[in-house]
Amino acid sequence: MLVITGRASRKARLAAEAGRFALLAGRTVPSYRYVSVEGEVVSVTTATEEEVREVGSRCLPTEEAVAGHVEQVLADPGAAVAIRVRPRRRLSADLGASG
Are 26 and 67 in contact (CB under 8 A)? Predict the structure, then answer.
């Protein structure tokens, strides 16, 4: 798992100190679904353009949006880190239609 965050963020500090990382992602429409992942931190390094682009392309709708995201994140060299996590536990659920 790859997470990009600010070098000075609480998230980056705690991940580096604990050596572990957990993430929960969920949605409520059209049905309530979630996934949680927990694992050991493999590395915390300065984020590269390739890593920022990889993460940005997963959730931004166009290449233009991805390019803008990459430019913004890398505008301050060294300000973003890439946290690599080796997943050890995963839990997911689809709780059916909401409402």
Answer: no
